[in-house]
Amino acid sequence: MSHHIVEVRDLKFTYPDQTQALQGISFLIRHGESVAVVGANGAGKSTLLQHLNGYLVPTAGQVRIGDVPLTPKTIQEVRRTVGMVFQDPDDQLFMATVYDDVAFGPLNLDLPSEEVELRVEQALATVDALHLKKRPPYRLSGGQKRRVAIATVLSMLPDILVLDEPSSGLDPRARRQLITLLQSFKHTKIIATHDLDLVLDLCERTIVIHQGLVKADGPTAEIFSDPVLLAESHLEKPLRMQGCPVCG
Q: Buried b / exposed e across 33-72, counting CB within 10 Å, b at 16+?
């Protein structure tokens, strides 16, 4: 299995209230790519991401991870390959301590206790949160919760990291720490975000979603240099590309 490849073919999804969130999305992401998914609120970004490891089931179309189509029979295999970090870290932190949260996934793989402990220690060290392992999650700051949520995914040793609005609610220092952390993850990354400056730091490729369709897919610098595309997609240039409003 070529674990790192993500292929989406004509993906469609309609919510129970008949809202058509995805209307035929297709793309291929190869091993080692860092890809941003951007678009206005309601464009379909989060809905798309939740299809990549089976949290949502498509109305039509297909998701493949490597050579494996995502189906009810393959979902557990795919989830060991695709690690999903949700927009709200509280959705991933539910145990009594940080250690227990990070150990939850490896324990469910029936790994030996020594292997579980090693994975937890390594994941927490990677996100600079080893000192938090005995703390209850409700006593963490927003930035600490974000790092621990990422650690819960890293402990599963994923080949593909999928993140939904990872910088949401972070102060500047925590945001910079997050960017440094994600730069160190050398496998495939797929990041849905409104933080277009973060995209410039992390993603060489950007997919623009508009009204449930792929409006553009290409090099990040080219996407963000197209004022017509950005305007039609209800986006603006990243702040660092806008220049000084006074001196031009």
A: bbbbbbbeeebbbbbbbbbbbbebebeebebbbbebebee
The answer to whether residue 48 is domain-embedded is yes
As a whole-number percent, the residues of the chain with pLDDT over 70 amount to 97
Q: How confident is the model at residue 171 (pLDDT cuts 50, 70, 90)?
A: confident
- In angstroms, rounded to a whole number, what is the distance separating the alpha carbons of residues 7 and 245? 41
d(CA 71, CA 76): 9
On whether residue 18 sits in a domain, the answer given is yes
| Residue range of the domain that includes 50 | 6-88+160-242
Whether residue 183 lies inside any domain: the answer is yes
pLDDT in tens, 37-54: 999 999 999 999 999 989
Give the distance, in angstroms, between the CA of residue 45 and the centroid of all CA atoms in the same chain: 10
CATH number of the domain where residue 191 is located: 3.40.50.300
> Which pTM value belongs to this model?
0.91
Q: Has residue 147 got a pLDDT over 60?
A: yes
In a domain, residue 123? The reply is no
| Structural domains of the chain, count | 1
Name the CA dihedral angle for 97, 103, 105, 106, rounded to a multiple of 10 degrees. Answer: -170
